Every structure is written in structure tokens, then in C-alpha cells.
Amino acid sequence: MAQQIIMTCENLGYGYRKDEWIFRGLNETIRSGEIFAILGPNGCGKSTLLRILLGLLPPREGQVYCIERMGYVPQHLQLEFEYSTLDMVLMGCARQIGLFELPSKANRNNALDVLASLGMEQMAHRPFSSLSGGERQLAVIARALLSQSALLVLDEPVSALDVGNQQSVLKQLQRLAREKGLTILFTTHQPQHALCFADRSLIMLAGKAQCGASAEILTEDNLKMLYHAEIGYFERELHGVCETTLAPSFSAKQKI
Questions:
Q1: Tell me, what's the pLDDT at 36?
Q2: What share of the chain is helix, strand, coil (3-state, %, to 5)?
Q3: Domain residue spans in the chain?
């Protein structure tokens, strides 16, 4: 079954000054069920590109076309009031509720079902502020899923999490893409996350955006130019399966 095109970028470019471009000439499509990663160093334009894709910032040139509703998961979520996890997730169905209406029983059941699909059903009535970092991130993802979005856009979704929670959140996103056909687009500073979880990756390199299959675009040479650091591939056997991943070198003997 052919994957449907969800989003198209045509000759996309952005810059703050007339002769300076953060990126330019980006032509890319994102398809249903695909996991798509955007990588680059600080200040390269990842957040700017994300805002353009979300429709929050107009491009300087080119167009973005998206045929599906997007659910956005920010890097950090600040809440001024104390909400239960269930109430926080129910915010995802705000478009389906009238201005002065309360969530219906069906809305609440749908929210509980989404939490259950992420293994979070036991957290529904706990204060959101009492959750761990990984649990909070999954709850925010549940809120985006409740909005019935076919495309989930996440800004560095695991940047503040420990390694165990990083794996948990990324594996849940991978499962949603594989089992539910959800399209995932996320930014990251971790090339190993893109390699292990993303079908394709886009790297923001010297004013240009290069895209390809993650295993093909995330070469050692590209990553060295991207981060000005030594990042290499290594293989290991885990539970009888040989896997390949990436890791930076932090050797004290390394010349800087």
C-alpha cells in the first residue's frame, strides 16, 4: 500500500537579512507512517524550520503544503495551574468542545484510551506535576494524539530526559508510527536517535539542508562537519542481534 504524502516543502528558504540565508532551496516530502528527524547544531535553524512547518512563521521564499492536522509537542510545557494528568490530556480535544462546554463522558473515555495505549492509564488521576520527566512527555504526546492529528511534530522530545526515559519515549513514538500509521517529525541533537528511530533525516549544514535515508545521510564525515566533533559508528551484539549505532568521542587524548 503506497504511503500518502502528508507534507510537501517547495523551494523553502528563510533568512533574517537580504543576503544571508539560514537555509534555502529545501524541497522535501513527508509521507504517512514515516518517522522524520531534523538535526543540526545550536543556531543552525532547526527551531525556525519547525515554526515554518507548523505555520507559525512565514517562509522568506517557497511554500509548505500539509493535508493533515498537526499535533505539536513542545520541548518544555509550563502550566500555571495544577491539573490532573487526565485533565491535561483532555486539552487535546478543545477543538471538539464548545466555548462554554465541559468535556463529555465520551471525551474522557477517549482520553483514558489514549493514555492506556501509552501505558499511562494508572497516571490519569495523578497531578501532572508529580509525574517524572518521561511520564510528562508521554502525557503531552497523549494530548496531541487526542486532537486526532495524523502528523505529530515534536521539538527535541527527549532532550531533558535520562537515557531510560529517552528510550521509552522514542520506542513509543516508533510503535505509534508502525502500528497506527502516525507520521512523526522531530528535532534532535542526538544523531544516534535519528539513526535508530528515524526512517529519514534532514541535516542543517552550512546554510543548506540535506536529506536522505538516515543510514545514508548520517555519515561520519557529515556529522563531523555538522557538529565539529568526532562521531563514529560502532557495532555490538545485544540479545543475539547485531546492531549499529553512533557515539561521539570524548577521549582525553583527542586533539582539539
A1: 97
A2: 35, 30, 35
A3: 5-218
Kindly tell me the number of DSSP H helices and DSSP E strands found in the chain. 8, 11
Cα separation of the two ends of the chain: 50
Q: Is the pLDDT of residue 255 over 60?
A: no
Select from 174, 179, 220 the least CA-distant residue to 199: 174
CA pair distance 250, 80, nearest whole angstrom: 40
Give the burial class of 143: count Cβ atoms within 10 A of its Cβ; 0-12 exposed, 13-18 middle, 19 or more buried: buried
The closest alpha carbon to 115, from 138, 91, 148, belongs to 138
CA distance 61 to 130: 44
**For the chain, what's the residue count?**
256
Nearest to 145 by CA among 92, 96, 79, 83: 92
How far apart (Å, rounded) are the C-alpha atoms in residues 214 and 141? 24
For the domain spanning 5-218, the CATH number is 3.40.50.300
Q: How far apart are CA 129 and CA 82, in angstroms?
A: 7
Q: Which residue did the predictor score with more confidence, 194 or 247? A: 194
Average pLDDT over residues 184-208: 90
Give per-residue pLDDT as tens, 49-97: 999 999 999 999 999 999 888 988 887 766 667 889 999 899 888 776 6
CA distance 227 to 44: 11
Instruction: Determine if residue 206 is left, alpha or beta; phi over 0 gives left, psi from -120 to 50 gives alpha, anything else beta.
Output: left
